[in-house]
TrEMBL record:
This is DsbE family thiol:disulfide interchange protein. It comes from Roseovarius spongiae. GO terms for biological process: cytochrome complex assembly. Residues 46-188 form the Thioredoxin domain. Belongs to the thioredoxin family. DsbE subfamily. It is found in: Cell envelope. Keywords: Cytochrome c-type biogenesis, Disulfide bond, Membrane, Redox-active center, Transmembrane, Transmembrane helix. Its main location: other.
Amino acid sequence: MIESQPPVQRPRWALLVAMLPAAIFAALAGAFLWGLFNSDDSLPSTMIGREIPAFELPPIEGRSNGLSSADLRGEVSIVNVWASWCVPCRVEMPLLVELAASGTVPIHGINFKDKPAAALGFLEELGDPYTRIGADRTGRASLEWGVYGLPETFVIDAGGRIAYKHVGPFSRRSLEEDILPVVRKLQAGVAP
């Protein structure tokens, strides 16, 4: 007859060590999901409240108006940094075209490191909401604005200071709840 041996009992800490990788994974996955669904598109920027950087950009080849810091003084305006190769820029373009058609606020563009033919094709395909567009062929002007991803949208006050910055494509909700209230306050002469 074979004698059965009593089951080997492992120390309790060994079970905890074995479960540690799964617990770490679950915590990281939870943090990622929380961040994904609880983020807002407005990121703090050191540029808020500061004067816009001095710049002068030529027009995209085939257009007549470039963009400079002097063009952004005297009225509240929006500056949108975009490129034809930027997929999220395509997402927000219909809202920019709609906003431009409403006449609420002038919209200017900074075209980031783009080929002129591609930029013009993008505008022909999706619409052109911009009063002026500066071609930032090297990316230097965008860097001075603090741009680190496309698209980025800035609200500029009449004195040439950055009042608001939106990173990424904006939705109708963020346009109506975040961007346009800042524009309206500035147009009314009230600080946002």
